[in-house]
Batch of 2 targets.
Target 1
Amino acid sequence: MNDVLIARIGKPHGLKGEVTVRLHTDAPDERFAVGATFQTEPAANGPLTLRTHRVHNGIHLLSFDEAADRTAAEGCAAPSCWVPHRTAMPARTPGMPRTSSG
């Protein structure tokens, strides 16, 4: 597989279709841009198109166009979100400031 894991989807949050995520990226604000599309594992649960991203009490919450309410969001639980390797951001040295290119 030539994709990069960026998050694992957790349980639903609230009634509007948001889900919690366990991050596997150090740049969530850059990764989770509205309109971004993510492949999933299992593939039958995706692809998912990001509708919203917010942080509530330190927990990242995402909603997807494919899950308009809590019931639909429950169907999103457990898959992993992946992006193609070609769109993965370049690695950076720990402690170095982030640049506009990554």
Target 2
Amino acid sequence: MIDISTIDAAMKAAAIEGSAFDLNPEVSLAEQGLDSLDSFNLLLELQDLTGVSVSDDEVEKLSTLSRIIEFFNAASGS
């Protein structure tokens, strides 16, 4: 199961500035200052951590922390 702590660790591993704890989970990452490369690198780190693959179609839908958490937890059966 992933949560904000997992995302925060993935952000650090991807060298993304800031903390997941400072982000609003319901607001898009882009609106909170993360560019598309940051978002992509975050998803790559989470894929590595969880073993869950994210398709190109799904990437576009994973624009908020809430959606990311929901997707990875559903895909991993958590």
